[in-house]
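User: My collaborator sent over this chain with a note saying "see what the structure looks like." That's all I know about it. Can you take a look?
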Amino acid sequence: MFVYSFKASTLKIAGLAALSLALLIVLIAIIPSMGSGSQTKADKVGEVAAAAINYDKIKTNEDRIAFLAQFGWEVEPEPAEEATVTIPSEFDRVFVSYNELQKRQGLDLSRYKRKEMTRYTYIVKNYPDYDGVVYANLLVYRNRVVGGDICSADVNGFLHGFKKNS
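Assistant: Without extra context I'll predict from the sequence alone. Here is the result:
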């Protein structure tokens, strides 16, 4: 058995520490950029489009129609229904589920408990691959869209957020 020993000088220890620090800095710079490379161009475009959606300054019927057009929806020129609704102070199972839908599209109705707002319901004219009646519901509080959905009128129909694939 061979035993080898050596004496490390202060200069060698300082050099090893500097080399380790340089390697650490390079790794910190490289690793975050590797993660963003997995994002596709379509994902980046989607993020920019989502950031560009305007939920504020919804004062007129034209503003509401323009809001829905941001998501690609064409609707009848006048709402099919306009109603004053109050968000309940306690959410039941159904309302919790509906608020989860809102959260997935960046909204949250829990901040509006006990608040009165207006629900505008429009008939969607361009829903793809569906022949039944489709509604767009907007919940507007103080000139801001705070919730809403796209849904079918059928009992066994569908309900999703404003985006076509949400």
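A starting point for your reply to your collaborator: The helical segments are 10-36, 41-52, 61-69, 93-104.
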